[in-house]
Amino acid sequence: MPTIETVFSPALIQHHALENRSVVIIDVLRATSSICYALFEGARSLMPVSTPEDCLRYRTLGCLCAAERNGLKLDGFDMGNSPLEFSRDLVQGRDIAITTTNGTYALLESRSANRIFIGSFLNLDLLAHYLMMENQDITLVCAGWKNKVNLEDSLFAGALASKLNDFEIRCDSTLMAIELWENSKDRLYEVVDRSSHARRFKRLGVDDLPVCLDLNRCPVVPEYLGDRIVAV
Ligand code: 3SL
Fold first, then answer.
1. How remote is the CA of residue 86 from the centroid of ligand 1, in Å?
2. Ligand 1 centre from 133 Cα, in Å?
3. Does the reported pTM lie above 0.70?
4. Are 54 and 65 in contact (CB under 8 A)?
């Protein structure tokens, strides 16, 4: 029976062996939601990179460049990190270099994994179905906020884990995530709206909770292959 583990923060990755496992990167608000949205809207690929400087280098290759730090779009980039910025008319057929505060960081920190997938509420059911078919050991990596645990990524880890019935749960963090999900799933918006990142959004005038919590809006399975994320 394959196993499932949950890592609540990128700071904890060092305590987990990711080799021979599939990883799901989770940054509900908003990087992994934006990646699912962009691929569903027809983007060809997304290249996660560490720094805004690295990101801009891709412009000479004809890529769109997306950069966010501390919740804000950086000046001089085509888009920040709101899913709604990745509209079909802008992204269809395009490659997009992207750097974000936590989501792309968590992904790049997980590169020792055998395979890396992208999870969000936008692709929950299809991703769960795909992972069941693949039947590999899985580690759910929550991006959190600057190495701190956050509510929305932990919730999503619980939502996904609760659908993976054929997996053996080996760690308390997965049990905790499932408990959280079971206690919150009937009032998802209300629970996430109390999170620190939702409060940060309110301060910044960002209104992306509705799109990021829109269950199964974007049925895609994004996988990081080589240096880019594509829909498989
Ligand atoms: O940290 C990240 O990767 C972002 O998702 C943060 S934000 O939602 O764009 O503020």
1. 15
2. 30
3. yes
4. no
**Mean pLDDT to the nearest integer, 190-202:** 97
Instruction: Report if residue 230 sits inside a domain.
Output: no
> Beta strand pairing status for 168-169 and 3-7?
parallel
Average pLDDT over the chain reads 97
Alpha-carbon gap, residue 215 to 198, rounded angstroms: 18
Residue with tokens 């008319």: 89
Tell me if 33 CB under 6 Å of ligand 1: no
In a domain, 130, yes or no: yes
Cα distance between residue 21 and residue 54, in whole Å: 28
Q: Which domain holds residue 71?
A: 3-221
For the domain that residue 7 is a member of, what is the CATH number?
3.90.1560.10
List, for residues 70-116, the tens digit of each pLDDT value: 999 999 999 999 999 999 999 999 999 999 999 999 999 999 999 99
| 83 in contact with ligand 1, CB cutoff 6 A | no
Number of structural domains (the chain) is 1
Q: Is the pLDDT of residue 170 over 90?
A: no
Please tell me whether residue 224 adopts helix, strand or coil conformation: strand
Q: How many CB atoms lie within 10 A of CB 65?
A: 22
As a whole number of angstroms, the distance between CA 38 and CA 81 comes to 11
pLDDT confidence of 143, banded at 50, 70, 90?
A: very high
How far apart CA 92 and CA 6 sit, in angstroms, is 33
What is the distance between the alpha carbons of residues 71 and 124, in angstroms, rounded to a whole number? 24
Task: Give alpha helix (H) positions in 8-67.
Answer: 31-40, 52-57
Residue 72: predicted pLDDT: 94
